[in-house]
Amino acid sequence: QVQLAESGGGLVQAGGSLRLSCAASGSIFNINSMGWYRQAPGKQRELVAGITGGGSTNYADSVKGRFTISRDTLTVYLQMNSLKPEDTAVYYCWAQSTDWGNYWGQGTQVTVSS
User: Fold this and answer.
1) Residues in CB range of 4: below 8 A, 6 or more apart
2) What ranges make up the beta strands (E) of 1-114?
3) DSSP state of 86
4) From CA 79, how far away is CA 67, in angstroms rounded?
5) What pairing do the DSSP bridges indicate for beta strands 31-39 and 89-97?
6) pLDDT score recorded for residue 22
7) Which CA distances in Å does 111 have to 41, 64, 97?
8) In angstroms, rounded to a whole number, what is the distance separating the alpha carbons of residues 35 and 37?
């Protein structure tokens, strides 16, 4: 099993920045991709950004140019700049193992005030 521990959420004004962190522990030897999803009230969970073990990244169109995902072996970061009220959501850390297992963090609230 893989455990994911998130930190860094909070309340910020529009235009501000936040940095999310997620550290993996447990059966870490078979983790491949990691990333961040978010879920706003009344909406489906959506991919925000992902990064493979080789460092390839992908982003949702809505965050391109504003968010940056990075990784330090077993810790994944999401630097969020120029935040907008529509970025308000619960952000979930995600990890995928080499045998295609999916693991989730408990979620961290990000609230952007206008």
Assistant:
1) 22, 23, 24, 93, 94, 95, 103, 104, 105, 106
2) 2-7, 10-13, 18-26, 31-39, 46-51, 57-59, 67-72, 75-80, 89-97, 102-104, 108-113
3) G
4) 6
5) antiparallel
6) 97
7) 12, 19, 30
8) 7
Token pair 């936040």 is at which residue? 18
Do the strands 67-72 and 10-13 form a parallel or antiparallel pair, or are they unpaired? unpaired
Q: From the first residue on, what is the mean pLDDT of each consecutive set of 10 residues in the chain (114 residues)?
A: 93 98 88 95 96 95 98 94 98 92 95 96
Of 90, 80, 91, the residue nearest 41 (C-alpha): 90
Dist CA 105 CA 19 (whole Å):
16
